[in-house]
TrEMBL record:
This is isochorismate synthase. Residues 315-425, 426-547 form the Chorismate-utilising enzyme C-terminal domain. It catalyses: chorismate = isochorismate. The lineage of its organism: Eukaryota, Viridiplantae, Streptophyta, Embryophyta, Tracheophyta. GO terms for molecular function: isochorismate synthase activity. Pathway: Siderophore biosynthesis; salicylate biosynthesis. GO terms for biological process: defense response; phylloquinone biosynthetic process. Its main location: plastid. PANTHER family: ISOCHORISMATE SYNTHASE 2, CHLOROPLASTIC (PTHR47253:SF4), PTHR47253.
Length: 572
């Protein structure tokens, strides 16, 4: 295939040689992970330009022989100044069901193999409208553990608000463009191209993503998330995400208002040693694992027994951190006005937590909120149900909003209205402020709008808005430094931007009300509270409990009798 590289093997002393092209490769097999680099590369901590996942096994290497190899291309390794040869969307004829859409796409793939494009790079999306409406979260759940995977559900569509029509001019191969509906949610598995690095998200990385996008193909999007603090060390549980992780799904299911759509995307770039043939083969491998039968999900508490619940920091250390923050805020020489301190709570249950089923339950709680899931091929699932928009762009029009002052919902309508009045009388905000009510909590809310001078300003907007005062503090840099010096865990993507980039539009939420779910390791649930002059440590702790309640209520906090688990601890 090209130049031979050397395999670096962890937990295995023996080294093997493998023929490969001149591209960085990361390979995963059960209980072993090893890197393959071209001869000229020595940095073991670099992000690869091509990612391989060995998934089925027989006899052979390490006692096993890979029967299926899935690979993906890292678009960050390309030159963002060089345009992609072709960006195209083709819409096929409408079919009645997801299974028929699968059949139609498999036929289309065979046809594409017979007539490869003459270009050295490009991205092509084939989409099949489906008459029946199927929930994207249920389709994703039917795919079991196919990785990588992503899910994003926009807020306005679920609440039937007047929002952007994100699905534009969807016509079939016969020219009929009448099949047009608003997009409710997107689920995807596999990546036609992914974007990941260890360094902080940069303008170069943004341009690398935009290179594969076009306003003429609005549903070719890169879904992903960025770390809260890219300057902080990455802890083991967040290592698979890097400093940021975005993916354009290979296979995507779109839930529409009254209908659905199934799509495949093929991306290739010879300059990245990722040819058309390699991309088609990778897509075929992913398609072999796709289930077309979708079963209705029960969106109710799972009933799993929780073995332990531990907090970092615990209540004692939380009180100390809050007192330290108050001392800094009250010091005349300090510029710190507000700092948002966070807590990580690890939940261990008797069985593995299914992140997609959990997210489906959060959807019931999450009207007027964004739901998301992002899971790299070798990592845990980052899931959340966030009410907070970071920014939304359509062409050069941009909007953002601010949420603050978390309070519980009142037990009666009169009490609820009193709490609403208390929220509205706290601060003065222009334009006019309102209250956003969620099932269990309510927030002070204000919306801001504006216009960009040019599309490239999108990166500056993202960099300027993140992190927001609601998740970091004021002034931003002073608060960030205090957090890095005080907090005893890695926030990772918690409180960072999560959403998608598109050709003509983009949308990002703030990754709060979120959790990291990992097989055999339970879940890490994150929450934060803003500390200002006059804050009380115990009251702020209660706010953390309130914010995490929408996650923990879906699991039973119960220590089973006759449990043989040792070192059981429930620490509040």
């Amino acid at each position: 295939m090209g130049l031979a590289g050397e395999i670096f093997i962890e937990k295995v002393e023996e080294k093997k040689n493998l023929e490969t092209n001149n591209a960085s490769v990361f390979i995963l097999i059960p209980s072993h992970s090893f890197h393959l680099f071209p001869p000229s590369v020595s940095q073991r901590n670099s992000i690869p330009s091509v990612f391989f996942l060995l998934a089925h096994y027989g006899k052979g290497m390490f006692g096993n022989e890979a029967r299926r190899v899935v690979a993906w291309m890292n678009g960050c390794e390309g030159d963002p100044k060089l345009p992609i040869g072709s960006i195209e969307t083709r819409t096929l004829t409408v079919v009645p069901s997801p299974s028929m859409a699968m059949e139609r796409l498999n036929v289309a793939i065979r046809e594409l193999k017979c007539s490869p494009p003459p270009l050295t790079s490009g991205i092509l999306r084939l989409q099949v409208p489906i008459e029946e409406q199927t929930e994207a979260i249920e389709w994703l759940h039917a795919q079991h553990d196919n990785l990588p995977r992503c899910f994003f559900s926009g807020r306005r569509s679920r609440a039937n608000r007047n929002g952007f029509n994100l699905l534009m001019d969807i016509g079939n191969e016969n020219g009929d463009s009448s099949f047009t509906n608003n997009l409710v949610g997107v689920a995807g598995v596999g990546s036609a191209v992914f974007f990941q690095q260890l360094h902080p998200f940069s303008y170069h990385d943004w341009r690398s993503i935009k290179r594969f996008l076009s306003s003429k193909c609005p549903l070719i999007r890169a879904y992903g998330a960025i770390r809260f603090d890219a300057t902080a060390n990455i802890s083991p549980e967040w290592k698979a995400f890097g400093s940021f992780y975005f993916m354009v799904p290979q296979v995507e299911f779109d839930e529409l208002e009254g209908s659905s759509m199934l799509a495949i995307t093929i991306a290739w770039d010879n300059a990245l040693s990722w040819t058309w043939d390699a991309a088609i083969h990778s897509l075929e491998t992913t398609m072999q694992q796709i289930a077309s039968v979708v079963v209705k999900l029960k969106k109710e508490a799972s009933g799993e027994s929780i073995l332990s619940k531990t907090h970092v920091p615990n209540k004692t250390h939380w009180d100390l951190a809050v007192k330290k923050a108050l001392q800094e805020i009250n010091t005349s020489s300090s510029e710190l006005v507000k700092v948002v301190l966070a807590r990580s709570s690890r939940i261990l249950s008797t069985t593995n937590i299914d992140p997609i089923a959990w997210l489906a339950c959060l959807q019931v709680e999450g009207e007027d909120a964004y739901q998301f899931c992002l899971q790299p091929p070798n990592g845990p699932a980052f899931v959340g149900n966030t009410p907070e928009l970071l920014f939304q762009r359509k062409w050069l029009s941009i909007s953002s909003e601010a949420l603050a002052a978390t309070r519980a919902r009142g037990e009666s309508r009169a009490l609820d209205l009193q709490i609403e009045h208390d929220l509205l009388s706290r601060v003065v905000v222009e334009p006019k402020k309102t209250v956003r009510k969620l099932p269990r909590i309510q927030h002070l809310y204000a919306q801001l709008t504006g216009n960009l001078r040019r599309e490239d300003d999108e990166f500056e907007i993202l960099s300027s808005l993140h992190p927001t005062p609601a998740v970091c503090g004021l002034p931003k840099e002073a608060a960030r430094l205090f957090i890095s010096e005080t907090e005893m865990f890695d926030r990772g993507m918690y409180a960072g931007p999560v959403g998608w980039f598109g050709g003509g539009e983009s949308e990002f939420a703030v990754g709060i009300r979120s959790a990291l779910v990992e097989k055999d390791s339970g879940a890490l649930i994150y929450a934060g509270a803003g500390i200002v002059e006059g804050s009380n440590p115990s009251s702020e702790w209660d706010e953390l409990e309130l914010k995490t309640s929408q996650c923990t209520k879906l699991l039973q906090l119960e220590v089973p009798r006759h449990s043989k688990v040792e070192n059981l601890e429930i620490i509040y």
